[in-house]
Amino acid sequence: MIFSVDFILDDGIKSAIKKAQESVKQSTDKLRLDVMQHYDLHRDCIKGFKLSPDSVAQLGFQMAFYKLYAKFVATYESCSTSAFKHGRTETVRPLTMATKQCVEEFHKKSRPSNSDLKNLLKECTKVHNQLTKDAAMGQGFDRHLFALRYLAEEKGMKAPALYQDPVYAEANHFIISTSTLFGPAFSGGGFAPVVQDGLGIGYGFLDNFTGCLVSSYSPYRDGTAFVEALHSTYDDIYNVLSKS
């Protein structure tokens, strides 16, 4: 049996719907999508150098951002915790002291030898792989801190001082937010930035290329400039690896 459901909308509801439509339109009008594909630094190539494809991809994001803005920012990567019953995700924070050092060495005017740079890339892979393993096994800290704050609010308790600290706020303002995509159609999937001045990066690897879809909100962040910097960064990493 099929019934017609008629919604009765008063002026208040109609006004709220209109405001929501306008808000969505403003956001989508500012949203920009850029696609990048790199045909040298692909999955098989990276594994051939005994490096982690995910580590190299994440390092590339840091290097490209540093190339444009000469600074490092909070970075998010989702990690599945499906090993646990009802497991969802934990946060991997790809910006580490290892990636920071590697990025800075790559950008020095008198930079180290290709062999030394390759060793830094290996160290980035080592650190990144451990972070990913820890997160997958429930050893991250982001979900833990979120749960504590949620429980405090649920019980009507004042949030601990940690959550009011400017450093904590900056650490959770994820300007670079990333997640892996599967399949060759990178232009068909992705997500918006999680903050107004951020970048949303959906990325993945195939046997013959690495690709990503980068979203940004104009004029707060230039996604086109970022993918150009990212492509040249992957060129640089590939040249270092192939000549070391």
UniProtKB/TrEMBL annotation:
<dbReference type="InterPro" id="IPR000542">
    <property type="entry name" value="Carn_acyl_trans"/>
</dbReference>
<protein>
    <submittedName>
        <fullName>Carnitine O-palmitoyltransferase 2, mitochondrial</fullName>
    </submittedName>
</protein>
<feature type="domain" description="Choline/carnitine acyltransferase">
    <location>
        <begin position="5"/>
        <end position="231"/>
    </location>
</feature>
<dbReference type="GO" id="GO:0004095">
    <property type="term" value="F:carnitine O-palmitoyltransferase activity"/>
</dbReference>
<dbReference type="Pfam" id="PF00755">
    <property type="entry name" value="Carn_acyltransf"/>
</dbReference>
<dbReference type="GO" id="GO:0006635">
    <property type="term" value="P:fatty acid beta-oxidation"/>
</dbReference>
<dbReference type="GO" id="GO:0005739">
    <property type="term" value="C:mitochondrion"/>
</dbReference>
<dbReference type="InterPro" id="IPR023213">
    <property type="entry name" value="CAT-like_dom_sf"/>
</dbReference>
<comment type="similarity">
    <text>Belongs to the carnitine/choline acetyltransferase family.</text>
</comment>
<dbReference type="InterPro" id="IPR039551">
    <property type="entry name" value="Cho/carn_acyl_trans"/>
</dbReference>
